[in-house]
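Q: Hi! First time doing this. I have a protein sequence and I read that you can turn it into a structure. Is that right? Here it is:
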Amino acid sequence: MPHVWPLHLRDGALLLRPLRRRDRREYLALRLRNQEWLAPWDATDPLRGAQRPSFPVLVRWNDRQSRLLLGLHLAIEWDGQLAGQISLGPIQQGAQSTATLGYWVDRDHAGQGIAPLACALLIDHAFAELGLHRVDAAIRPENAASRRVVEKLHLREEGLHRRFIHVDGQWRDHLLFALTAEEVPAHLLDDTGRGVVRRLRLEHRIPPPRGRVATS
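A: Yes, that's right. Below is the predicted 3D structure, encoded as structure tokens:
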């Protein structure tokens, strides 16, 4: 199906949607509250350090990247409150047909299964709606919580990349994990071609949401 933007992916209490200008106060408070929690894992610019763009610039950049399908950048909303962010990008189409997954979740919401469900929902969208072949994720070896997320979704570990991404002020080693569309068992695919969320629910006994997963 053609790429739709703005994009909304819903599964029960979970909603993935674009950041909006009216999110400014809530988003900045969320980042401030999680500053120490996220610092060891946040990518940094080797030329500008940890300096982050202003919120209006961030919203405009996210919107442009997502509208042009250079990447998808979405807020994670849980039960009506901002709880983190998730991204898929850069998106490489054509012969590679791949994208890189990134995510973070509010410390107060950690351990509630929000990150695996958000990742599963976006991976299903990448495979079923965008027609991508592969999704990968680069994770610092020390980040046990993030590794558990991708392991729950059956992303394979593909090896260690030395000094791969500039994080927390230094070039850091990262483990690469990946999943291809063919690795999602065909018997788990629903009538829309989604299967990653369904496998997650079955294996971890997560009750289904009320109603169907919604996409717009």
